[in-house]
Design goal:
The protein has 13 helices and 8 strands. The protein is an alpha/beta fold. It has an 8-stranded parallel β-barrel with strand order 1-2-3-4-5-6-7-8. Helix 1 links the parallel strand 1 and strand 2.
């Protein structure tokens, strides 16, 4: 995939690095990144607030200024303090959380995880964030730089737009845009990149080409897909045509990704995992022929799949017991 505003192509599957850190889980994160690159996944999504504030450092140590990958980072959420301490605290508490205690350890949740604060984006803070990210990521140019969960005030701030343009002119960032949860379909967003939870029904108002990066596909749709299969969908011809084996949950995530990729053929989908073998199993089973060059019948099947998923999601208690073998990042 080529975009004139990026110095290189972007793989259609990207790795979300929200849970990776350069602290206690460095070796696991390193293995995940190396596995992704081996599979042809060359786009990585991070932010200063991810991984206890240590995700960018991990990517910098493992990838550095590798010209064969693209990295997206952000500004807008403050990184947590004491990142290394928090990463090791979570590592130490992880076995205890798997056990059945009548009451949690005092302070366990607050020690292991603390949400990042959303702050108004000021020009000085934006420029400082770019400098810090370039340092931690060990990259001269940030391929994609996003306003993270921007407020309406941020989106209307002309000084921010001018600062982003200046950063592009000085070749400190390659492309700018917005990274959020849900983006409204009835408004314009600044920049040339939009990153948001995938919505099959969202239509962009933009006339110029934009790079659209989606997160949350597996996290928000996979459980409902499995609930549909368990509720009788497994016996329908649609499931067989899509390669959905009700007895093998490992077929579910690749089939869901294949369908979404076929419906949004210029877009990038982020996934994340804490298991390299599971990541490999999902990416390797994507049907790229169907994803890149679907027939009319295959497109109809993909649309029908998301129709039945939406219907299942609207049912009471749907999908709550479904296993989620691979979560997409909620970046």
């Amino acid at each position: 995939m080529g975009y004139q505003f990026l110095p290189k192509g972007v793989s259609r599957i990207g790795l979300g690095c929200g849970r990776m850190n350069a602290g206690a889980d460095f070796e696991l994160g390193k293995k995940l990144i190396e596995t992704a690159i081996e599979l042809g996944v060359t786009h990585f999504d991070t932010a200063p607030s991810y991984g206890f504030g240590l995700s960018e450092r991990l990517i910098g140590e493992v990838i550095g200024d590798n010209p064969g990958v693209t990295v997206a980072t952000k500004v807008g959420l403050t990184p947590p303090t004491w990142g290394y301490t928090r990463s090791w605290t979570r590592r130490l508490l992880r076995p205890l959380k798997r056990r059945d205690f009548s009451a949690p350890l005092p302070g366990a949740n607050t020690l292991s995880r603390k949400p990042s604060r959303r702050v108004p984006i000021q020009v000085d803070a934006l420029i400082a964030s770019v400098d810090r990210s370039r340092k931690f990521l060990r990259r001269d140019v940030l391929d994609v730089f996003l306003l993270h969960e921007p407020s309406e005030e941020d989106l209307g701030n002309e000084r921010l737009a001018e600062a982003l343009e200046g950063l592009k002119q000085r070749a400190e960032i390659g492309a700018a845009g917005v990274g959020s949860g849900w983006l409204a379909g009835n408004r314009f967003y600044p920049g040339v990149v939009e990153q948001f939870r995938w919505q099959n029904t969202r239509e962009s108002l933009e006339s110029k080409p934009k790079l659209k990066i989606h997160h949350g596909l597996l996290r928000f749709y996979l459980a409902y897909l499995q609930a549909w299969l368990a509720g009788g969908g497994a016996s329908e011809p649609l499931a067989a045509r899509l390669g959905l084996d009700p007895r093998n949950r490992r077929t579910h995530a690749p089939a869901l990704l294949t369908a979404a990729l076929s419906l949004s053929r210029n877009d990038v989908f982020l996934i994340s995992s804490n298991n390299p073998a599971r990541l490999r199993a999902v990416v390797q089973e994507i049907d790229w022929n169907r994803a890149e060059d679907p027939t009319a019948a295959e497109l109809m099947d993909a649309r029908k799949l998301f129709e039945v998923i939406s219907q299942t999601a609207a049912a009471p208690n749907a999908g709550k017991s479904a296993e989620q073998p691979l979560n997409a990042t909620d970046s």
